[in-house]
Specification:
Structural class: mainly alpha
Number of helices: 12
Oligomer: single chain
Largest sheet: none
Distance between the termini: 35 Å
Helix content: over 70%
Length: 234
């Protein structure tokens, strides 16, 4: 909750420092943060019930947040009479084949190579520095751990014989690691769809790969998988 409040406060401060830039108030990020806080207030018992019950609540929670985000954003734009970012949505609509547009700004983006798909030679250049190999390995390892932990959390199993394994996986997936994992996947999708956004992904790849190489928790999991684990080796 504090993270969402800090993000909203930061955006409002930017709005003031940019001489009350109304475009920031109409951004999806402010609407999203407000929507999450409202959804958290409405749905408090997401961790009760069995696997299917929890999955249903989770899907409902996501849909609620998305619908509230769009409604709040539309409401803010209606009140402030904002249309300054409409060309971005027109560009995205045309880019992903949901209809052509006659908007000048949107067509200008479509003609620009930087707003196209990420070229495949990017991966070979990232591999030449060994960054992509390390990143891919850490990403695979943490994704597997995340899937296992998420499934066990959603199933709500409290059995004693599962408790030890649960603890083993949660050690390798601390909250900050899970947060970075979600971020790097989203940045990757953004870079793949729009080449200009690779500056976010490549810098995050360096941080993420470094975390994997320097994390004792990751090495602990690797050694346990190879049946070579001792505290001295870690």
């Amino acid at each position: 909750t504090w993270l969402y409040i800090i993000q909203i406060s930061g955006l409002l401060l930017v709005c003031v420092l940019q001489f009350f830039n109304s475009m920031i108030l109409g951004s999806l990020l402010i609407s999203f943060n407000v929507s999450v806080l409202i959804a958290r207030t409405i749905q408090k018992n997401l961790k009760k019930g069995g696997l299917l019950n929890r999955l249903g609540k989770l899907v409902l929670h996501v849909l609620l947040v998305l619908c509230l985000t769009l409604l709040i954003n539309k409401f803010i734009k209606k009140i402030l009479n904002l249309e300054s970012d409409e060309h971005i949505f027109k560009f995205l609509k045309a880019k992903f084949g949901f209809g052509a547009t006659r908007d000048f700004d949107a067509n200008l983006y479509l003609c620009e190579e930087a707003f196209g798909l990420l070229p495949l030679n990017t991966f070979s250049r990232l591999s030449s520095t060994l960054l992509f190999y390390v990143y891919g390995f850490v990403l695979f390892l943490l994704t597997v751990a995340a899937v296992i932990v998420a499934f066990r959390n959603l199933s709500g199993s409290n059995q004693v014989h599962l408790k030890g394994k649960m603890e083993e996986y949660t050690v390798t997936l601390k909250p900050e690691a899970a947060y970075s994992l979600v971020h790097t996947v989203l940045f990757g999708c953004l870079a793949l769809s729009t080449m200009r956004m690779k500056y976010l992904w490549t810098s995050h790849m360096c941080v993420f790969a470094s975390f994997g190489l320097c994390s004792t928790e990751v090495w602990k999991l690797i050694l346990k998988c190879l049946h070579l684990y001792t505290s001295q080796r870690v």
